[in-house]
Amino acid sequence: MRPRGRIGYWSGLAQSTVTGHLRDAMARIDVTQPQYWVLNRVNAGPEAPSREEVVSQLTPLADGQHEIARVVDQLLHRGWLRVDAGQRLQLTEAGEAARARMRELASELRAVVHEGISDEEYVAALKVLRRMVANVDGRGILTGRYPTPTERRSARKR
Description:
By secondary structure, the chain is mainly α. It is built from 7 helices and 2 strands. A hairpin with a 5-residue loop joins strand 1 and strand 2 (about 90). Helix 1 crosses helix 5 (about 95-115) and helix 2 packs across helix 5 (about 95-115). The protein is globular, with a radius of gyration of 19 Å.
């Protein structure tokens, strides 16, 4: 027998509660979650990204199609980013210091959110949610291709 509950309700509540908690804590130090995303993305690879690359890569996470471009402008204005001669975004010293502060805060908040949850439980929960998404949309999310519902039904009949 399956446990009773509404996955849509609980997954939605978890997303809004955790995101709200993170964003409220970041607001207290005058930063936003999208600013953290941009600073991390600029810092992520061996080659500095262009503005267009950052916008393209982070827009799917954002609250609108123009949000990441605005955040890049905010960070340039704030002096946390600069544009080099090759039109690539670079962190300034102040930007790296801010990124480090945000990372520390995110780690502290993660510890609160994950209290009483083992790494194994967390990974299992992510796998279940990814599978549910894949079951509905027919694509493998982040982990490769999952069979479509039709393919699963065909395999069960064999």
